[in-house]
Amino acid sequence: MFPGYRTEIVGGQPRAESGQAAPRQDDQAAVERAGAPGPGGVGRLSDVAVPMDDSNEFCPDLAVIPAAEVAKNLSAYSPELIEIAIEVVSPSSVRNDYEVKDRAYARRGIPHYLIFDPYRRHCVTLWNPGPDGYLGRDTIPYGKQVTVASGIGTLSVDTAALPVDPSAV
Questions:
Q1: SS3 letters for 2-32?
Q2: What is the pTM of this model?
């Protein structure tokens, strides 16, 4: 929608980000490198449109889907394809990542949702989606391994290697 900007539609309103704060950008790159599932049947998308409903079109920071679907190289993908949705928090995305996307991803039946937060220095793993959000939730402090087994493969991220905001407590 806006060249040079990452754009999502949240609650019917376009939300564009021109850049990423260093901790968020570094965490996203580290999660993509460290957490890339290995089997040939597992693929991943980054910052690609996922229409959720009439008011929301998200661009997950990383989404784990079947490799055959990634190979189609589409401009938008169905949320039904996503096994694991991953967001990396930025100062401007806190509410969307922790509240809005929690409920929206769960309502669409995405089995797993991970929130990596370089400001709070933890990863929140959510599973067991329901109409009001995820019923299962764990908070894993950075420094530990995060492993999520999905229907198409396992994602594993060593959070000890993830950069954090130096001003975070």
A1: CCCCEEEEECCEEEEECCCCHHHHHHHHHHH
A2: 0.82
DSSP H or E stretch at residue 67: helix 67-70
On whether the CB atoms of residues 126 and 137 are closer than 8 A, the answer is yes
What tokens were used for 105? 């991803």
- CA-CA-CA-CA torsion for 131, 86, 96, 169, nearest 10 degrees? 120
Question: How do residues 24-76 score in pLDDT, each as one tens digit?
Answer: 555 666 666 655 555 567 888 887 899 998 888 999 999 999 989 988 999 89
> 73: number of CA atoms within 13 Å, CB side?
0
Which residue, chain included where needed, has tokens 């996307």?
Answer: 101
Rounded alpha-carbon distances, angstroms, from residue 146 to 131, 153, 155: 25, 14, 8
